[in-house]
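Changelog excerpt: complex records now keep ligands as SMILES alongside chain sequences, and the structure block spans every component. Example after the change:
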Amino acid sequence: MRFSPLVEQLMDAFRVLPGVGPKTAQRMAMHLLERERPGGQRLAAVIQQAIEEVGYCQRCRTLTEAEVCLLCESPRRDDALLCVVESPADQLAIEEAGGFKGRYFVLHGHLSPLDGIGPESIGLDLLEARVAEGLVEEVVLATNPTIEGEATAHYIASQLAEYGVKLSRLAYGVPMGGELEYVDGGTLSRAFNGRLPFASE
Amino acid sequence: MRFSPLVEQLMDAFRVLPGVGPKTAQRMAMHLLERERPGGQRLAAVIQQAIEEVGYCQRCRTLTEAEVCLLCESPRRDDALLCVVESPADQLAIEEAGGFKGRYFVLHGHLSPLDGIGPESIGLDLLEARVAEGLVEEVVLATNPTIEGEATAHYIASQLAEYGVKLSRLAYGVPMGGELEYVDGGTLSRAFNGRLPFASE
Ligand SMILES: [Zn+2]
Ligand SMILES: [Zn+2]
């Protein structure tokens, strides 16, 4: 026996979420149908609306439904400091760690020529234009401490070399091969304070 | 900094799911927006449709979008055996354990007079009508091995006493205070085979 087609479809659909296997997906489907129909309806409506309306900030490429995000619009951030991250989740982790008061630029990935992901796919034209404006004095290359993240940081460093901005990289409090998103706030915060000049070769 | 209002709403909305705290909800929202928009749209549509269309089977009260569920309609199940469970998740756990070939009746809860949950709220009128049809020879009271589950089993036993059906309870392979839904299949299967006559007092 399996459940009815629609209940089975609901269980399957939850598996699109990260870390959700068959057993968890079953529990989620049952929970919504048995105890949380209003919350489930709200979840469905918000997912739908967010997928339709949330795009990239025109200035920093973070996720937002506005043309320009709240952080880019804030007058209280330091225009001279620009932190480049691979994902909005990394940006969130750094913000929650506290201590960094500059602006961000979100790549949504890293260079991966074999997958057809080149500089423009990760917004490097927009990043260069931003630095060319002349306000940025230091670019913190906070890509992941993985092979791809390092390669992307090196590429950006050579791309921006002609503008004479200071380039830095997070201090290695973060384990090699790890993902920023899962590093605790204290470690991230220390890594930020201990950031080093970026040596591009 | 927080994300834009709509992204924040999306993160909040995921917290309606069981076992999803703030950090997991953030990861789910980011994952959908960054990597799984088609899957997210499908999830939203299926949640919406399931909440609108899935109700209770008119015969056994399990979750289904049909009037009568597939299991009730199957000619291959034994009408003489009726297993009473608290939830569709318990029914699913027993089915996945295998071995039981009878029919089910789903209470969607247990008696809880202080919360206003009386016999009709958990379908006991429908259960009595089912037994009164005369086909059922044994009712397996597979409510949870909790105080409320035991009390509900006792209530049902006295309600059905006049019909002369055999009453049984799962053998205690399941730990007292536990929830059937989380018991492994082997234990459940053994508990089924070792079921005992129900002693109502
Ligand atoms: Zn922005
Ligand atoms: Zn049914």
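Chain B touches chain A through 58 residues (CB under 8 Å). The domain at 64-169 of chain B is CATH 3.40.1360.10 (Dna Topoisomerase Vi A Subunit; Chain: A, domain 2).
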